[in-house]
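Hello,

Following up on my earlier ticket. Below are the two sequence lines again, exactly as submitted.
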Amino acid sequence: MSSSSDAHRRRRRAETPAEQTFADLMNGFSLDSGRKRAPAPDEVPARDAAPVAPQPEVPSFDSVFAEPSDASIVRAYAWTGGRTRSNINLEIETLVSANDQSRHSTGILQSEHQRVVELCHTPRSVAEVAALMRLPLGVVKVLLGDMAERGLVDVHQTASAGGDTPDLGLMERVLSGLRRL
Amino acid sequence: MDYVGSRFPQFGPPGPPGRELTSAKIVVAGGFGVGKSTFIRSIVESDLLSMSALPPERAGGVTELVRIQFGRVWLDPGLALHLFVAPQWQDARAGWTDVVRGAVGAVVLFDIMRPADSVDAMRYFEDHHIPYVLALNNVHSSVRSDVNAIIRGMGISPDVPVMNCDPRVRTSVREALISLTEHAKLDRWRRRPGPDETTPLAPVC
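Thanks for your patience. The regenerated structure is below:
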């Protein structure tokens, strides 16, 4: 793990103190709320899927994956600091993949970022990340946008990005791919 | 933290790391129970995933999360094709933006017993200039010509390809997707004659 990534991370934190504080505060609230304290058997699979590094106990995070309810959706938006838009253009089919930097800095990532990094060891689309993390699309876009800005995931822009129709080269590729299926 | 890397030694199913990756998407629309999910499942050969999205505020009064089903198949080592079920929002015209934007085109599954169910989708794609094909769900060939007459009578452009399609049969689904992509390509040639596309009506590829 390089010290430069640490420094980068510290810098990011310094740049966005308000958002971090707000998100932490909100997460703290839900941890102590007691609403999620009921035994949730679904927690186990989520934990199994992510036993990569010893990490602090964050039970509420797992239960967000297990049972998306209104309360958990509110909490999910709290991770994003209440933002609903990302600075990076992400379509639902845009592919993202974890890169070397994220692989080497898994231990110091926020838990939700860590989960994204694990998912994206194989390239995944934004829609897949949303489906597999059971988070609303808008939240995932903001989350992935943040991670892309920090250099934790690579975004593979689609030829159709920007609301345009896909270009002819891509269509030709789709066509020959379909014929091979 | 090197052990993290060793736990995931493989980059993934498609191609070697560093390969240029891109993706495309096709929308599958139609009425309830017409076979949209089956259609996608036939081609991706796995269960569909489902994501949730908040409909845009424009949808008016809809506050619940909408579930959008989709499947993904790798067409070549660097190209992932996504197939999205166009969600059944209460106001179909309001919430399709994210799903439809940038799509190659749409397959509208059409049940001849319930033609009205698919009309909304067809209108939407016509209005937004999104290329689409009509896939008639499992129509007996003897009634095909009648159905064609009915469809043309509905004011659907004669350019729109119409075909039979059994959503349960992979080859049938594949044919529908191929003819959609060919139609979309042609449409693209016609609509966007750029400086290096000087012969828009002769798409010989």
